Automatic annotation (TrEMBL):
Lineage, top ranks: Bacteria, Bacillati, Bacillota, Tissierellia, Tissierellales
Annotated signal peptide: none
MF GO annotations: lyase activity
Keyword annotations from UniProtKB, A to Z: Cell membrane, Ion transport, Membrane, Sodium, Sodium transport, Translocase, Transmembrane, Transmembrane helix, Transport
Protein name: Oxaloacetate decarboxylase, beta subunit
Membrane spanning stretches: 12-30, 37-57, 77-97, 109-131, 161-187, 208-237, 285-304, 316-336, 348-374
Alphabetized Pfam families for the sequence: OAD_beta
InterPro entries per the UniProt record, alphabetical: OadB_MmdB (IPR005661)
Domain of life: Bacteria
Topology of this chain in the membrane: Multi-pass membrane protein
GO biological process, one term: sodium ion transport
GO cellular component terms attached to this protein's record: plasma membrane
Compartments, record wording: Cell membrane
Length: 378
């Protein structure tokens, strides 16, 4: 009967911490509804892979030999070997996004670029704190509040901290409604937050909508070749949507495909949350630097809008700049809610949506740029 208690005897204090992390993520997913589609599978997976002698990861068993664990197999096939899971998710995301508000107001493209400032600031900070360049670059991407891009970049660069980076990225995506208002108020005055903007949408032709994803893919691929898979899959999903002839595929990509990949990605990434790799001081540093990156991305977009106001007659509400991060559509909703709170007659949603979808493009291009740059030094 000793084999029945063998697992209990093998539990370490690091395992207990990971059980706590798992329960915390599940609690946040269910009680607080923070990114439940991802945090719940990640939380359960963190418990699954940290059970002693867990059959979810590869084990060598006496008399049997090597036994393949499903979670480790999924990680090896879907993330480590091909990055297939995060890339396939981009097809679903692209099929959900309407770039119309951005195309009708191209100025919003600028905010998708400006709001990536925190990525490069955090990269520099992580390097100063002693992280290797590949790890520092992976940590910096957390600032984009884009989980799939964070996972993809950290995996391609071979970072040792994929699990911590994924948890940080998705946690801060979930905390957008809490963190962003504080960051915005830190660098704006009440008067600035009350600036009214009148939305006069220009018509966007069907041809423009179709050519846009093709053009973005080609430009991004020429400027940052490593971004082709990131941008290309996102834009492919959008092309399916805008073609107007693939309604069933659009529906499948934005619902069934996105939901299935999200489910698999959440529990698969938990393989990198094993206690021996996760419970260390570096994980705490990554969470802290990730928060700095996220805050500075928000501030970068807001400050850029304030600088533009120095040179334009038509003033931009600087809160729009904060929506330039990749957390779509949460960040746009935060800006809209803050705008209505400052002035109930001020509707900023469509401007914020334009900046927000630009941020989605900006984050994947930034990921590709970082991959290209870092590969020059490695």
């Amino acid at each position: 009967m000793e084999f029945l208690t063998e697992g209990i005897k093998l539990i370490t204090w690091q395992d207990l911490i990971m059980y706590g992390v798992g329960f915390l993520l599940i609690y946040l997913a269910i009680e607080k509804e923070f990114e439940p589609a991802l945090l719940l599978p990640m939380g359960f997976g963190a418990i699954l892979v940290n059970l002693p002698l867990s059959g979810a990861i590869n084990q060598t068993m006496a008399g049997i030999g090597e036994v393949t664990g499903i979670v480790e197999w999924l990680f090896n096939i879907g993330i480590e070997a091909s990055e297939a899971l995060p890339l396939l998710l981009f097809i679903g995301i692209g099929a959900m996004i309407d770039f119309g508000p951005l195309l009708s107001n191209p100025k919003m493209f600028l905010f998708g670029a400006a709001a990536q400032f925190g990525i490069f600031f955090a990269l520099s900070l992580a390097t100063v704190l002693g992280f290797e360049l590949r790890d520092a670059a992976s940590i910096g991407i957390i600032g984009a509040a884009d989980g799939p891009t964070s996972i993809l970049v950290s995996q391609v660069l071979g970072s040792k901290y994929v699990g911590a980076i994924a948890v940080a990225a998705y946690s801060y995506m979930a905390l957008v409604p809490i963190v962003q208002p504080m960051a915005i108020k830190l660098v704006t005055t009440k008067k600035e937050r009350q600036i009214k903007m009148h939305y006069n949408p220009k018509g966007v032709s069907r041809k423009a909508r179709i050519f846009f994803p093709i053009l973005v893919t080609m430009v991004a691929g020429l400027v940052a070749p490593m971004s082709v898979s990131l941008v290309g899959f996102l834009m492919f999903g959008n092309l399916i949507r805008e073609s107007g002839v693939l309604g069933n595929l659009t529906e499948t990509a934005s619902n069934e495909l996105a939901n299935l990949i999200t489910l698999l990605l959440g529990i698969t990434i938990s393989f990198s949350m094993r206690a021996e790799a996760f419970v260390n001081i570096e994980t705490l540093l990554i969470m802290g630097i990730g928060l700095v990156a996220f805050v500075f991305d928000t501030i970068g977009g807001v400050v850029f809008a304030k600088i533009l106001n120095l040179f334009t007659r038509k003033k931009i509400n600087p809160m729009i700049g904060a929506a330039g991060i990749s957390a779509f559509p949460m960040s746009a909703r935060v800006v809209q809610k803050m705008g209505l709170k400052e002035d109930p007659s001020n509707h900023l949603l469509m401007f914020a949506v334009g900046a927000n979808v630009s941020g989605q493009i900006g984050s994947v291009v930034a990921g590709g740029v970082i991959l290209n740059l870092i590969q020059q030094f490695l």
